[in-house]
Amino acid sequence: MNDMTQPPQRSRAAKWTRRGFIGAGVLAGGALLIGVGVRPGNPVGKLGPVVAGGEGEQLINSWLKIDADNIVTAIVPHCEMGQGAHSVLAQMLADELDADWSLVRVMQAPTDGSYVVTDTIRGFVAPGTLDAPDWLEPTWNGLFTRIGQLADGLITGGSSSIRTTGQHTMRIAGAAARQMLVGAAAKAWGVPAAEISTANSILSHKASGRSAPYAQFAAAAAEQDMPQTPALKAPKDYRLRGTDAPRSDIPAKVTGTASFGIDALIPGQTMTYAAVRRVPVPGTRVAKMDAGAAKAMPGVLQILNMGDFITVVADSYWQAQQALNAITAEYTAPESAIRSSQDQFARFAAALDEAGDTGGKEVIGHGDVPAAMQSAAKTISAEYQVPYLAHAPLEPMNATVWVRDDQCEIWTSTQVPLFARSAAAKALGLSKDDATVHHPLLGGGFGRRLETDYVVMAARIGQATGYPVKMIWSREEDTQKGLFRCADMSRFSAGLDAQGRLTAYNNVFTQRHDPADACDCAFYDIPNKSIRVAKAELHLPFAAFRSVDHSQQAFFIESFIDEAAQAAGRDPLDFRLAMLGKSPRHKAVLEKVAAMANWGTKPAAGWGRGIALTESFGSIVAEVVEVDMTGGKPRLTHVWCAADPGFAMNPDGFRNQMEGGIVFGLTAALYGEISLKDGAVEQGNFHDYRLMRLDECPAIAVEIINGNHEKLGGAGEPGLPPAAPALANAIFAATGKRLRALPIAKHFA
């Protein structure tokens, strides 16, 4: 047996707390670090050979370079997985730089600690520092850059790319570079910097008639002192932001030349391919296997029992997978008593029973809920549940590795390249400096590629074989043996006064991950509120799902708010609006979507409209779903969506993300379910883990409200949370049937 250390179920991305981040870096070196420039110092000398090694290229600061042809390249730290982050980040930098958009290119930042997403970490740990006075900015910048480096903080997730790195890094990098270019030209021309203008990558001095492309002064600009807090444009001066600038990744994806992790080949090397089979039940191990038939199959190079998985390495992936299918195995007895989905929900119910009306850990509370419930004119209660979900990206888990001479080189699609590097190095007993990670485009992530388990598996295989090897999970393996959106159960009770106002709100649920405040509907003005968590065991390992806890909590909360409206005898829209007196942006979004859907008109018999309002990742989103129930099953006809992300940097891209999130959310609501039998996942592929088909997709309309130019929200995740409750509420409006458990299709089988 080749029994190496089993990788942890969760990456460090999920384990870092505020205390952990601070503790890692506050006293690094015994003192606070002082940043000078957009990054602590201007590391042009160090980074130039890494990211600007081409002929005539000049790195101005960490985030941009200019070549002899006046091409500006934005160096972006976040990965591109179809969300358009690369293009929008470049757009934000180029706008502050006054660059010619036709001359702007995008480069993925290397897996280097110099490119940690400092402002994403600041936004997570200490969001108040993002609005620090100018004189404090160097200190905060330096401190959190160091924390990020210690914590391997090169992360794409939480819909954070634009609202943190874009707003607080790329804009500043572009503005700083523009100021440095102006300073270099002013010095060369002997004129005041204030007299030099910039537009379309050209420096101009009107009085003397001089002009020059940025490229002419790029080298001199790099020698300029870099301003930490350069003047940024006001919204009225935006030229690129707020426009539908085309995405940079689309042409290569259309022509098929785009490179994803699964496309990786090692130049000059004969590739081998690994297929893997993890243990079917979490916590078990491979007791023994019979590989006799597999050994004789064509192309098979090696068969390994790795303890927590079996792998076949062969000349092709098909040969490896066919040989793996011929192997039989026995496994150790599971430790968990949870054997079925019914067992899992029984475990949840027991935890909620034990918590009762006041038990568990209160995470949000104000007022006096018991007193308000006692004095209420009417009380209601409800229980909701959601199943486990698989991420199901179209590019399955994969990694290509080459372990040799105490070095490990990895090519993989990952949202956390520095975590992946450290995890692989640790598993192999190497220093992280002895591991290199290349991260190309991602064919979908949805949170699954925040984890590093598959990278560690590939590294272990590479070390055990010595071959350059590409490990690919089958679709079945990806569906059954990955990490999952948690199942969850939530109980509510509420009290209404004689006027039908919600005066008491009591909620207890079993799973709380990220964001911590997803369980709260803080924008509703409810005078007495208690929200508690009664933690219960999860049988399947957890990984962040698109919108994380909002994916289940929005269904719970907005379904129950609809039930409260029904109990009050109020229209669901009016009931919500009455609680939004202190939340004008939320009210505006809700009113907008109601107008879009023509909410005041009565649908035809057997048709219904449902509404839901959420705030997640800084964006406020309301959706109305229309459903036709005349055929006995839900047929979705329309979805209207109004969203306030603060300011949509690229409106077309933002709409695309809203549409994608809506389809993702409706798919999960209708069909999404990972169920258990004998402790293992039952589903295996898209035939039994169904996705919404094209002919099932409703017409989707999205309208954007730019409510706050300074406080940006995310795009990739906020479209998902309102979809499930709006659909469930629409079905109730059409049929009078209240659905409190997902997936919806099971109720109409």
Largest beta-sheet details:
7 strands, mixed
**Fourth-level CATH superfamily of the largest domain:** Aldehyde oxidase/xanthine dehydrogenase, molybdopterin binding domain
Distance between the termini: 46 Å
**Rg from Cα:** 27 Å
CATH topology of the largest domain: Aldehyde Oxidoreductase, domain 4
Number of helices: 21
Domain module tally: 3
Percent of residues in helices: 25-40%
List low-confidence stretches.
Answer: 1-37
Mean pLDDT: 93
User: What is the CATH top level name of the largest domain?
Assistant: Alpha Beta
- Named at the architecture level, the CATH assignment of the largest domain is 2-Layer Sandwich
Would you count the extended β strands for me? 27
As a percent range, the share of strand residues is 15-25%
Strand ordering within the main sheet: 10-11-8-18-15-16-17
Sum up the overall morphology in one term: globular
Please state the structural category. Answer: alpha+beta
